[in-house]
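Consider a protein example.
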Amino acid sequence: VCTHFKKVSHTEFACETDRGTDQLVVRPMGVRAISKAQQEAWAEVENNLRLLYVSEVSAFEGNGSYVTDLFAIGFEPLSGNRYAYYAEAPGRLRPASQSSGIPSYSIVPADSRGSPGSTTPGSPQEVGCPVTSGTTPEGEAVGLGVTPSGKAFIGYAIGRWEGASSWDCWSVSSVDRVGKDGSLIPAGMPHRESEN
């Protein structure tokens, strides 16, 4: 008999008994099993959006403004990334080679090594991905990118993992937001917008 459940992942729980953890994995109603490729893709996008958030917060602490130049804040996912990352859209795509001058870009494309045959959409809207907007404490609207005041931002990720037929859409923000279902999306927390 289960005495309580131990969270194993964001969608799975293990049964705790007086004899220890049972091997039985229980999934809440309405949660479907996900593939290993999907688990790996989600781990990647969550980690990289947290990195984007930390990079942006560091920039803000250094100069009092969030920025859309991903090179300037040192945001660079590991090679093989399945998702494209956006500080604004439309924006400047990271060049394939950085042979001359100091590059400036606001979009890091998906790497074909991690996502064979991948393309990088110009914006979330181009592939039908929603963006959960927010509002600063001062009442300034926050959408994808940096606000005109530079006091808030929403970063975004779009990708497909191996075997996926649709786009997977995620975001992270410097402000708390409210999801479609009325739930709180805390600042700095990667949020899955939708699987298109």
Remarks:
- The CA atoms of residues 45 and 83 lie 7 Å apart.
- Confidence is low (pLDDT under 50) at residues 22-31.
